[in-house]
Amino acid sequence: NQGAQGIQGSQGYQGYQGFQGNQGTQGNQGDDGQGADKLTFNPQTGTTYTIVSADAGLMLRMNNAAAITLTIDTNANQPIDTGTVITIEQQGAGVVTVTPASGVTINSTSRKTWGQYTVIQVYKVDTDVWNVIGGVA
What we know:
By secondary structure, this protein is mostly beta strands. Helix content is about 0%, strand content about 30%. Strands 1-3-5-8-9-7 form a 6-stranded mixed sheet, with no helix packed on it. The protein has a 3-stranded parallel sheet with strand order 2-4-6, with no helix packed on it.
């Protein structure tokens, strides 16, 4: 026969945890964004206008009583970066129709403004491909 097992001794105390080190310094803050604080206008009073590279980021204010044809030219003629947004306002009574130059695709169910003070936007999604959004008829 085996004898009874003896009583186990107490566990010793756990030592104290050491101090946490100092936090490292914070890095430099990044530059402020370059966003515009307000719109820059490009007023147009004719019945035809072709978007140019300098219109990138602007608001075209189309002001004529007669219908207005707004043409988007090819990237070869007017190089504009993909992702560029151009805002168009029908300021006068003349409806603005966005028209592609030969070789340009415009994706939209409609390309006409629906009334005075209507605002639409065109934005470039590929080399010669644009989308139209906003107050289209």
